Structures are given as C-alpha cells and as structure tokens.
Amino acid sequence: MNIDLLALEAVALAEQAGELICEIYKENPQVFEKKDGSPVTQADRQSHFFLKVHLEQLSPHIPVISEEDESSWTLKSPLYWLVDPLDGTKGFIAKTGEFCINIALMKDNHPILGIIHIPLTHETFYGYGGKAVRHHKGNTSRLHTRPLSAQGMTLLLGGYGKKHKEQEDFFLKAYPIARIERVRSAIKFALIASGKADLYIRFEACSEWDTAAGQALVEAAGGIMTNLDGSPFLYGKPGLLNQEFAVFGKKP
Q1: How far is CA 230 from the centre of its chain?
Q2: For residue 221, which of 123, 136, 130, 99 has the smallest C-alpha distance?
C-alpha cells in the first residue's frame, strides 16, 4: 500500500465532494430527520455517495464505513475508510460556515491517515506518518502544533453553550487557560494541528467518524488525543460511539 499516493488521491476526492457541498450550500436545502433525531440534508447524502463510490474505486480492497450508511457500521476489517461526509450539519443548515468533510484510513482500529476538508475556505488538512500538511488552492505547507505559551492556553469547545459549565470550570482551574473559543465540527482539530490553539475538550458523546481524521492529523502535527483520564483513545467501540476526550497540541 502506497500511503503517499493514497493520501493525495483521497485529498482530491475530499475536495471534489466539497465542491458538491458548496453548490448545495448556496441554495436552501431541505432538512430531514434521522432516526436518532439529528438533522441530515441532501449535501450529507450527495457527499456520502460520491465519496463511497470513488473511495471504493480507488481502493477496492478497503471497505468504507460512513455515517450516512448504517449498514456499514458493523463491517469488520483490519483496514477500512471511516468517513463523515459532512461534519457539522447544524452549522451547514445555520449557514455558519463551520462544517467539513472527515476521511480517515484506519488500520487495526487506529487512524493512520486523516483528512479534513473545509469546503467554504477550500482548505484541506491531512496527516500521516509524522507529516501534517495544509493544502490550499494548489499550495502546500507543513503543519506543526505550537509550544505552550507563557501567556496561557487557547481552549476550544463545542457549541453546546453552558450545558457542561461544571466540567469546563474544572479545566479552567486545572490548566492555564487564557482564551476560550467555541467552534463547531472537526475544524477544531485543524486549528490544533495548525498551531492556532492548544487544547480541545469535548464533554459529550460523538461518533468515531467525528474524531478519527482529526486524531491522525493532530498526531502527525505533534499533538496527542486521549480520554479525559489520560488513557489512550481507541476505536472499534460498540456502536462506534466515543465518550469524552481531550486533544493537546503539546501536553503540559
């Protein structure tokens, strides 16, 4: 398996799927409700079908597990793609611009390649094998997480308001937090990997396709992702469901 070539091909697919999403974003897409009550749009579905078909053509021996294909969630394979065709659907619907595409290549339930594409900014962040890269309009630059500043850390949180104020207050006391930013979707991982923030904490459950690409990207840039107790963050869990976690650019 030539992971260098596979990464470039998958990046190109993510960017093409992003173009499909942008076309729908200009309209007022119809919003549907999934069985779990979460919203889904035609952008989620079109991105899913495009990525599933083309990833299977790119690597016929590697199955695709996607958020929008429930029948794929129980697939068992040592090597598989883990895809969120549109992460941040609520941001997409609200026209905040905070949404992205997540593609991870998993080996033995660990992400070895992670791609995050942000359609509206035409930026793609990807990482594997100790190399993290930002690709933008034909130009590439290497990414590195930043060293901790004497002025304190920038903490990234999701957009869930004050639901978890008690846990947030604990981390505000436990670490030298100087600034808090609230950002939707896996874009938070790209900010950590790019050295624009230091710490991302999530207190709510999410799915493995929400984090796998981001974890591979951050680790390739020099960071680390763990459970809140500091134990390794693992995949292949029942229902592909994550619990709380922390992402550090540099561990204090």
Answers
A1: 20
A2: 130
